[in-house]
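To illustrate this point, we now present one chain and its tokenised fold:
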Amino acid sequence: MDKTKLETAIGTSRKWDAREAGREVARNTIKNLNAPPNFFLLFSSIHYETHGGFQEFLNGVWEVLPEGTPLVGGTVSGFINPQGCYTRGATALAMSYPNMNVAIGVGYNTKRNPKKAAMQATKMIKQKLDFTYRNRFLLQLVSAGNVPNIIARKKVVKGISKTLALNLYGFSLKVLQTGVGREDEIHDITTNEFKEFNILGGSLLDSMRIMNNYQFYNKKVLENALLLLAMSLDLNTNVCTTLGMKETDNEFTITKMSADKRVVHEIDGKPASKRLLELLNWPEDYFDETIYRRIFYYPLAFKDGDRIIPEVIPLVLGDSLLFTYQTKNPKVTILSTSGEGLISAVTENLDKHRSITPALGLISSCAIRLQTLGSNIFKVREALMDYFKEKPFLLFYVGGEMSYSPENGLRYGNDTFNTAIFW
């Protein structure tokens, strides 16, 4: 292994215009490489949707990027890199290393048929990746959930029956491809197909309005897509997930839910939305369009074996609650968190890698953390700078996260902090 030939560069653009930002972020990234990049990882804020459009953004990138470079990425709520913390703009990471092979894959219609999308993307990787080198890493990016574009795209829909709630939920997913991201169903496929890989994942979203999100695949702008970036390389990798949340004694039992285990109708034998308000000691008017912000500090969690799966409630449908993941255990705990707890998840995670001298870090973190921490997000960057020193890293804020390793298995959920360290 000759790491002296490893070159990794990170660029940023804060320009408002989509095409200009695309040109600048590509130029600022690859100017620091002496050889063509093996891949180009690209993230941006949602604002380019109304400042030229994402196709123009990509067009600007490809004015600079060498033809044929594998490119994946998409929209995020924000990002942290050695240059700063941002909720607007674009960032990219490019890597040039001779002892590495790369392949990218794509799957379509993730909300309508996540298993088919996962098989499409994994098949492409298996067909294209040269497995010469002994270490394997996979970056998994998928379209996050969004508010259904029915009933005026409300997060709280009052006065509807259980039957209507289920019909709206099913119609939204199958026909309109809006609603939950169904990432957990994708995780099951990718981790089974790539058991020997270390995997880091995140769900691409907007500025936490949970309305639209986009994926970048080479020169295409996509929606409802799964993107995979696979590497065979001689660098070592570690992945790790930490939570920074505490279990409380506030628990409940789901007593009635939909067949797919996402729409919860009853809790403790009572209408779900009313019972959750009781458990949280909240007035009824707390379930309004600000619910996604209110619930930040009280994630729900179920246990699946040795895993704690934290999740949030993106929608209230009458007396029913929509959960982000399939709730495989009816026993649910209300977690508590704080700014201190969110920061501790960062330091706890990095402490697990203290024996490693990193060459590169990729980090997926929940956008809830970004919004909850506010200006304290700079403490996250300080911790990252302290650990990585002069080495590059890129943290992207997403709407659902995961990691997988052959040793520790799959870890996923909302409000988590996940690292992939290369050395």
Remarks:
- The radius of gyration is 21 Å.
